[in-house]
Amino acid sequence: MADEAKAKGNAAFSAGRFDEAVGHFSDAIALAPSNHVLFSNRSAAFASLHRYADALTDAEKTVELKPDWAKGYSRLGAAHLGLGDAPAAIAAYEKGLELDPSNEALKGGLADARRAARASAGQAASPFGKIFQGPELWTKLTADPTTRGYLQQPDFVQMLRDVQKNPNNINMYLSDQRMMQVLGVLLNVKMRAPTDEMEREMAEPEVGKKAEPEKKEEKKPEPEPEPMDVSGEEKEARERKAEAQKEKEAGNAAYKKKDFETAIQHYSKAMELDDEDISYLTNRAAVYLEMGKYDECIKDCDKAVERGRELRSDFKMVARALTRKGTALVKLAKISKDYDVAIETFQKALTEHRNPDTLKRLNDAERAKKELEQQEYFDPKIADEEREKGNEFFKQQKYPEAVKHYTEALRRNPKDPRVYSNRAACYTKLGALPEGLKDAEKCIELDPTFSKGYTRKGAIQFFMKEYDKALETYQEGLKLDPNNQELMDGIRRCVEQINKTNRGEINPEELKERQAKAMQDPEIQNILSDPIMRQILIDFQENPKAAQDHLKNPQVMHKIQKLISAGIVQMR
Questions:
Q1: Which domains, ranges and CATH numbers included, belong to the chain?
Q2: Does the predicted model carry a pTM greater than 0.90?
Q3: DSSP character for 193?
């Protein structure tokens, strides 16, 4: 389940849906809280949303879980740099490069951090230098409704980053109205913009006489007298709205005390007084949800959506009603199909307003539906029947048909290691070695004592010409089943192939292919990048006596044997 959530997160991140990616990675972390890669991925998603404080928290957790993983320091450096802390970013990137000196991402990050540090050193020339540094920049811009929209514009984000690196560059952008708005937000000053003036004039229309700025400034902050021409009906409507708000507040207070019946009475009274505010309906729906009266909750949500559309209410209010309806539908779900209408409702809510909570509820509902589908489909008896059908087709050498039945058997019972073993054998016959290897590994994962899983995996690795890995697999299986002839034969075949390589009896093209594949193995890469091992390999060529001394060390001997088995080193 964690891998599935991670895959969804990666897909959302690649598509630029960073909020959604954060949700998926959070789901994966809940299922696998010790997986450092998940925290690393979520840190990257947070950084893409400019939520650098959250990115830093996840990066620190990544490094805590896996201190020898260079990529974690890349995340740490990026988060520090986003927060304007160039020295901390430099330290993080340098630490990562100690672990992986050739990492291009770390090198690039270190260069950016050093440029930012140099720019910070010259900030005194700009009066705006400090306000563009630190986490408050992104927090303030995200909180303001106007500048929040700017953060979705790539050219604007690049403009901000340029000013962060060198505050003196702000002079280049002062003609851009967006930058003036940013300065207003950061300095807590109301900037005069054309849109602000339009809103002021519309809010305070005057006929004939033009108001002078000086008089407006001298105007005392007194309550405005009620206009003389307000009709009795308008006055009564105002009073009813005010009374409705009081009822709503009383309902909120009762709700917090879990006095649900009283809360319902107040919300119902508010609705009677004012039918043009759908928040009374959505609040009452929330009470019904808490009480477990899901049908009543759904009815109120439907009314709120319908009335909200008539009144052209705030889309966030409509989205809230749909989210509550979806939550109630989830509570009512008994079988997997029941989740369909809840999922559809959450999706509608997201089209109104992309709220992270709604997105999480949608993901939870989709996951619950899938789990329930698996439970409903689970039937070990039918699974055994499908497995037997697959076995018959396998005997007839009809491998695609056998795969089909084995796959159905796994859908009916995904915990049967025998079926994974059988399907791995089919894939091997079909030449689909990567798929077969995956099934063999799953077989071993489900039952580490099932020797057939090791023979399947070893055979596939042998066919892939990974003789060193096949040898290890067979040896591992033999520890569990010492008398297994198939495992012993596998070891013999691997040793023969490795010896042929050492004697030079192998096709040069095949040797190159094996060596190229071996060089992609992280373990081989670590051995060859170890300075001590490099010296030992030189000694083997130039100083045989010293080489013999090295072989007395069990760890060195194991690494040399690994290189020999992989075809990297040949002993003649």
A1: 2-121 (1.25.40.10), 136-192 (no CATH), 240-353 (1.25.40.10), 413-506 (1.25.40.10), 511-572 (1.10.260.100)
A2: no
A3: -
